[in-house]
Every structure is written in C-alpha cells, then in structure tokens.
Amino acid sequence: MKLLKYATHLIALLTLSLFALSPCAAESTLTSVVRKAQTKVVKVFGAGGLRQLEAHQTGILISPTGHVLTALSYVLDTDDLAVVLDDGRSFKPEYLGSDPVRELAVLKLPLEDESLPYFDLHNHTTAQVGDRILALSNLYGIATGDEPVSVLQGTLTAIAPLDARRGAFTTAYQGNVYVVDAYANNPGAAGGALVDWQGHLLGLLGKEVKSRVTGTWLNYALPTASFAESVNGLIEGHSIDWEPPSQLPERSLTGELLGLRLVPDVLPFTPPYIDAVRRGSPAERASLRADDLVVFAAGRQISSCRAFLEALTYLDSREELELSVLREGELVEVTLQAEGQNAEE
C-alpha cells in the first residue's frame, strides 16, 4: 500500500515537472513577459536624417505619469521632438535634464491623469554572468506607430568596466556595464531596455561604441544601479537650473584666452571634449589635457560644446573659471584664469 502511495506521488510530481518544462507553456509565459515589457518602451523621433545620422532612438517609461529615460544625443535637439507610446499615441515631451557622464536624458510627457505602465527604478534588479536576457528597442526605426518595439534574446556574457571609444574619443562613463551576446546596440537602439526573463529592468542599452582593445562594436547596457540615483534626482528637480545674467560682460571669457580648444562642434549635442591645449597657456598650467571631457563650468552642468561656449560668454575675461572635467573615469577639478596681458588686449 505504501509502495502504491509513493508511486502515485512520484507520478504526480513527474507530471507537474513535465508540464512546467513544456515548451508551449514556457513560450506562452515568455510571450506574456515580452508583451508586458514592450508596453513600457517608447519610440523617440527627432533631429537627424542627414549624413547617416538616424533621427530616432528608444526610451523607457520610468513613472506612471510619463517620465521617459533615453539616451542624451543630437536626436533630442529639435523643437519637433516626438515620443510615441506602445499604443501609437504621440506626444511632444518636455526636456527635464541630463546626465552628461552617462549620456542619459529625462523627458516628461504632458500626462498627469493617466497611469502608464513603467519600469520602477526604485526596485531594480541585478544580473549575473550567464543569465538569459531580452533587449527591447526600436532598432533601425522599424516601429513608427502602434507597432511593438523589437526584441532580441541573448545571454549576459560579462560584467566589466566600459573601455570604449566613439570615434577618436574615449567614452565619459567607464564604470561597469552588462555585456551581452545579442546584437543589441544597433542604430536607434540607444535608450532601450535590457530585462531578464521575468521582465525586470536590468539596464539601459547604451549608444553605439567600439572597444578600445579589440576595435569591435560593443553590445552592452548600463546597469540600472549605476544611474537610478542620478535619474531620480532629475525627476525630482535636482538638476542644475541655470539662469543667465541680465547682461553680458564688456569682454567675455573665451577658450582662446584660456588656451584650450574643443572638438569641432558638428552637432547640437557634440560632447564637450577638449581637442587641444596651447603650450604655456592657463589651461596647460591647470593640467588640462586633450580628451578631457568638460562636465561642469562655473557651477553649470555642461552637456555639449555649445553649452560650454555659452557659459563662457557670461563670464568676464578677468574672472576665474572653476572647471570640472572627466579624465579616465575620474572627476578632476581645476581653477584657471586668462592671462592678464591677454585679457586686457
């Protein structure tokens, strides 16, 4: 009798195990997870379309009232910026602020009375090497209306510091990233979501970069833990709101007076990297170097070459300039002043 009872229990357990491992059941569950995650991903359309610069990227909803996290790029620099939800509705967002080091931006949709599906940054999940992942994005701009964003399946292959470059310049962020084996970082994919097979947010897909070691394109995402605090600060209004003075000084400070030159300003959001430092100049004496990334100037957050040059125009040529630059992952703070003989000429 005991043997029969044991056999009955064993058969029941095997039946449940087979059902749990049923490909149809697993596929149904994964499909449900994917579809739910897709509703939290948005399509972003803006500037671009020339010289092989795509005019689209991806974003994720991070609040029920329409806060959107996306990549900081030239795509956002237009008055005709549009964010399209999963259901096809299109909105003109407000630009709230950015994190120039991680190259992230926060937008706000004109929605208050709705409760949108979103990824909760306060309750993020971490991943381990070998975990299966899903990358959701509007790669190649395939979705334009109520079409769902694309989904790629893969595995987390490494967690390592980002040692990469964009063109000739090293990326500002050099913290740990999730490296995946899926071809996730395609044109338009920046700002997309990396989630686990339960649909929990693991990170944000980064902009297209190449490994400085191998020269190959990297497929990676910034872990949620690396940007959650910064992004929540932007949502809460902790970004630096800078009000320009009522009038310009008689003679403004310039990069020439300081002895530094930024990289060519070819795009509205060209990152403010220092391209060259003149010998014997105030910039050289302050130990500034080519490839330094300007992140703060005179207490103002700097996210582009134009923002830096604008900040200088409101400073008198005789004033000291407090500058914060990012160098090889470290924040370096310097104070420099234009030479007296140059400032008075």
TrEMBL record:
The family database entries (InterPro entries) matched by this protein are listed as: Chloro_Bact_Ser_Proteases (IPR051201), PDZ (IPR001478), PDZ_sf (IPR036034), Peptidase_S1_PA (IPR009003), Peptidase_S1C (IPR001940)
User: Which intervals hold domain PDZ?
Assistant: 256-329
Give start-end of the signal peptide. 1-25
Q: Does the keyword Magnesium apply?
A: no
Which UniProt keywords are given for this protein, alphabetically ordered? Answer: Hydrolase, Protease, Signal
- Give GO terms for biological process: proteolysis
Gene Ontology MF terms in the entry: serine-type endopeptidase activity
Q: Which Pfam families match?
A: PDZ_2, Trypsin_2
Q: Which PANTHER family match?
A: PEPTIDASE S12 (PTHR43343), PROTEASE DO-LIKE 8, CHLOROPLASTIC (PTHR43343:SF3)
Q: What is this protein's name?
A: Serine protease HhoA
Q: What is the lineage of its organism?
A: Bacteria, Pseudomonadati, Planctomycetota, Planctomycetia, Pirellulales
